[in-house]
Design a protein that fits this description.
24% helix; 11 strands; 263 residues; Arc Repressor Mutant, subunit A; 6-stranded antiparallel beta sheet; 7 helices; DNA-binding; homodimer
Chain lengths: 263, 263
DNA sequence: GAGTGGTCTAGACCACCAC
DNA sequence: TGGTGGTCTAGACCACTCA
């Protein structure tokens, strides 16, 4: 309880330690910096600072929350580690965005065997509204039959199809998404999502399998039925661990591989 | 340069900042805690503290290195983040090991679709000494033709083969490794490596592909030729980013998937 | 109760960036 | 030159573990 008693401002967090003056049997102990982290996350979620913008300096935040700079620092450190914030020495701390080149394909682990290969091209095949199947609804936390937007697209390298993606998005969050809007947009899809719909992908879980190409997938990927494909099912989450995108990808791995780092 | 001049003990690190008293045009600046981190890593590498043992307390390390506890703390924090050390509040800081249940299969991302599935069983098929092929030599940083140990094994669930692994190890580091020694060993293979051969796997890189089962692999995995398999090529590193294991795995993914978390 | 890691503070100085 | 994040310190107190 390092806060000077009587100085509790509106935004000052309350440590509520188990040995607090109230003597309440607090079931859990939450360090100050964790509470600061929570407050910062709420501000990010609420849009107080938008992707790409700078958040207040550590000194300002320390004053706002009535804690020392070191405490704010630890909170910001963890948010930066979680890729929610980006620190730039001498300039400030910024809200992370999917726009930066370094994070261009943060979630796409597929790389060409040939390191000097060309960049991937995008080709939208389809974008339609439909009702969520039981499976899609379950993954996205919707009710079966709710509106869903499905996007089908290819990624190509040197005009050769490499990835076929089926993307499912909750209809309520992505009203007005259309082929035209996506086609005219330069840059990563996740950047469009955060800029146009205010939906920011924070983390994702993937499940990988080896499968045989079905007839349609083989045709779209310009390969033969039965060819082994890498199936990548991705569930992406925004703040609060809320799932907001289901993506089923089929990757051709004759000249590409899925790269993963283990620590 | 916070060290009091004239107090340079044998183990005291030298910050050597660009604006040091010598005025040397130091090309790079290395914070104190980074240097401490390096010293700690060297001690780990040299075996001063063995896997599972406790390292000296933060206060002791601070005294040894003539820095404050906070500086040691930051160094230890990063090593703990990198899974080299494990902190246990109230007890001490320990050298990480592959023995703990929580890290039992730290590097194996394959999980059963059915969450209530049985544990994986291990079956060693083969262990032989041979000369490194050009490809294996290149991956492990050896000369072509150098001695290599190859281990082939299966992982089974409910008597059904799920994983076929071919493991390649530098012969000089793993003298005396035999089927008997591995078969009689309870616990993870990486635990045996660190306990019996002093080789600790720190991190790894994997390349995943979808491939069709060849005749031999199909037979060993009790499946049909042509079935899609997940090919996982793993290169594991010890300290100094030195590669010490090449592993080629073939995973059946009818009832299992490779799980990955994206941040 | 002694010892460990965990949190928090206040203040100093450094490296980097922009104006 | 001033502001930002980055490093380092010294000291206080807390939470946890174990004898």
């Amino acid at each position: 309880m390092p806060l000077p008693s009587g100085s509790s401002a509106a935004e000052a967090p309350d440590a509520a330690g188990p040995s607090g003056p109230s003597g309440a049997p607090g079931p859990s102990f939450s360090p100050l910096y964790q509470q600061i982290k929570g407050l910062l996350t709420r501000s990010l979620q609420g849009g107080e600072w938008k992707p790409g913008e700078a958040i207040p300096s550590e000194m300002e935040l320390a004053a706002r929350f009535r804690v020392s700079q070191g405490t704010v620092r630890k909170a910001v450190d963890e948010l930066a580690t979680g890729n929610l914030l980006v620190r730039r020495q001498g300039k400030g701390t910024y809200v992370a965005t999917h726009a930066e080149a370094s994070t261009q394909y943060r979630f796409l682990h597929l790389v060409a065997d040939d390191p000097g290969a060309a960049r991937l091209q995008r080709r939208l095949l389809d974008c339609r509204r439909l009702r969520a199947s039981a499976e899609v609804a379950r993954a996205l936390g919707l009710r079966s039959g709710e509106a869903v937007i499905q996007v089908r697209r290819l990624l190509l390298q040197d005009a050769q199809p490499v990835v076929l993606d089926d993307i499912y998005l909750p209809g309520t969050l992505f009203k007005g998404l259309s082929v035209e809007r996506m086609d005219s947009y330069k840059g990563p899809m996740y950047r469009l999502f955060e800029a146009e719909f205010g939906v920011r992908m924070i983390r994702a879980e993937e499940r990988l399998r080896a499968v045989a190409a079905e007839a349609l997938a083989a045709q779209l990927l310009a390969t033969a039925p039965g060819v082994p494909l890498l199936s990548v099912e991705r569930l992406s989450f925004t703040y609060d661990d809320k799932p907001v995108e289901l993506r089923r990808g089929l990757y051709r791995t004759e000249h590409h591989h899925y790269r993963n780092e283990l620590n």
